[in-house]
Specification:
Blueprint (H helix, E strand, L loop, with lengths): L4 H10 L2 E3 L5 E5 L2 E3 L9 H12 L16 H4 L3 H5 L28 H5 L4 E5 L2 H18 L7 H9 L8 H14 L4 E5 H6 L1 H11 L6 H6 L1 H8 L2 H5 L2 H5 L1 E3 L2 E2 L18 H14 L11
Parallel strand pairs: 4-5
Antiparallel strand pairs: 1-2, 2-3, 6-7
Helix pairs in contact: 10-12
The structure holds 3'-phosphate-adenosine-5'-diphosphate (PAP).
Length: 296
C-alpha cells in the first residue's frame, strides 16, 4: 500500500492525544496508545540478545559475537523506531537471513502480511508490578539525560493503571499475544521474563526448538545453550563498554536498558494500595484468559 505523508500527518493530527512522560505525546490508534520511545520494559533487550545468539550460533561464539560491540537493539532493529521510521521502503535484502526484527506493536496492529506469512513471533511478557517500576526508572534516566523534569512514581503509576502508556493498555497488549500463542503455537511463542530468570537455559532451548534450530546432541554436550545464556546475561552485557557509554538512538543511552533485572523489585517502590490496585487489574484483565504471573 502507498502511503502519502500528507494523509499520514492528517491522520495523526486527528487522533486523540495524552501528554506523555517524555514529550510530545501519546496518540490513541486502534485502541492502543502509540509513543515515540521504545518502552514496554518487559525484557526485549534480553530476548533480542538471546534470539540473535541462538539463530547465529554457527557463525558466532562468545569471543567473536557482535554483542561485544553492539547493543542488542542495534542487532535486532525495531520496525517502527528504526527500520521504517525514516524510510517507507527499507531494503530488507541488506539483512542476512534468517532476518530478525523487533516490534512493540500490539498483535492486532501487525500488518496482515506478517500474520499470514511464515514469519514467527516471539513475545516476552513481564509481570505488571515490575514493569511499572522498570519503566519509571527508564524514563527517569531519559529525562535526566534530556534535562527535563522528573515525574513521581505515583504519577507514572496512575497513568499506567489508566492504560495510558506506550503501546498500552499493557494488559490488552499482553493478552493479545497470549491469545494468539494459544491459538497458533507454531506462529507465536509467548515467554515470561520470570521464567527466563528462573531457568534461562530451558527457555533458550525452547526458543531454539520454536525457530526450528534445536540444539544437537553435540551442542548439548558442549553446553552451547549454557554458553549463550552466559553471554547474554545482564552481568555480562551491562559490563561491556558499548553498553556503558554507547547510544543506540539519539538520546538513548545504552546503559538505561540494563538496570537490576530482578523479579520482585516492586516491593521497594510500590505502596500496599498501589499493589492492591494493580493486582485487581491483573485479576480483571488477565486472569480470565488464564494469564498469570509470578511476582516474586
Ligand atoms: P525496552 O522495552 O525498553 O526495550 P526492556 O529490555 O524490555 O526494555 O526491559 C528492560 C528490563 O530488562 C530492565 O529491567 P529492570 O528495570 O527491572 O532492571 C533491565 O534491567 C532488564 N534487562 C536488560 N537486559 C537484561 C538481561 N540480559 N538479563 C536480564 N534482564 C535484563
Amino acid at each position: 500500500m502507498e502511503y502519502h505523508q500528507e494523509e499520514m500527518d492528517e491522520l495523526i493530527a486527528s487522533l486523540p492525544k495524552e501528554k506523555a512522560f517524555l514529550a510530545p505525546s501519546l496518540c490513541l490508534y486502534q485502541n492502543f496508545w502509540f509513543p515515540v520511545t521504545p518502552q514496554p520494559k518487559t525484557g526485549t533487550t534480553w530476548l533480542k540478545a538471546l534470539v540473535f545468539s541462538i539463530v547465529n550460533r554457527h557463525r558466532f561464539n562468545p569471543s567473536n559475537t557482535p554483542l561485544l560491540a553492539s547493543n542488542p537493539h542495534e542487532l535486532v532493529p525495531f520496525l517502527e523506531f528504526t527500520l521504517y521510521a525514516n524510510n517507507a521502503k527499507p531494503n530488507l535484502d541488506d539483512f542476512p537471513k534468517p532476518r530478525i526484527f523487533s516490534t512493540h506493536l500490539p498483535y492486532s496492529c501487525l500488518p496482515e502480511s506478517m500474520k499470514r506469512s511464515n514469519c514467527q513471533v516471539i513475545y516476552i511478557s513481564h509481570n505488571p508490578l515490575d514493569t511499572v517500576v522498570s519503566s519509571w526508572h527508564f524514563f527517569k534516566s531519559l529525562v535526566q539525560s534530556e534535562n527535563q523534569p522528573e515525574r513521581s512514581m505515583e504519577e507514572h503509576f496512575e497513568t499506567f493503571c489508566q492504560g495510558i502508556t506506550g503501546f498500552g493498555p499493557f494488559w490488552d497488549h499482553t493478552v493479545g499475544y497470549w491469545n494468539e500463542s494459544l491459538e497458533k503455537p507454531h506462529k507465536v511463542l509467548f515467554l515470561k521474563y520470570e521464567d527466563l530468570k528462573e531457568d534461562v537455559v530451558a527457555q533458550v532451548k525452547k526458543v531454539a526448538e520454536f525457530v526450528g534450530l534445536p540444539f544437537s546432541l553435540g551442542e548439548e554436550k558442549e553446553g552451547v545453550a549454557q554458553e549463550i545464556a552466559e553471554t547474554c546475561s545482564l552481568r555480562k552485557l551491562k559490563d561491556l563498554e558499548v553498553n556503558k557509554t554507547g547510544k543506540f538512538m539519539p538520546n538513548f543511552e545504552n546503559r538505561s536498558y540494563f538496570r537490576k533485572g530482578e523479579v520482585g523489585d516492586w516491593v521497594n517502590y510500590l505502596s500496599p494500595p498501589m499493589v492492591a490496585c494493580l493486582r485487581r487489574i491483573m485479576e480483571e484483565k488477565m486472569s480470565p484468559f488464564g494469564l498469570e504471573f509470578k511476582t516474586c
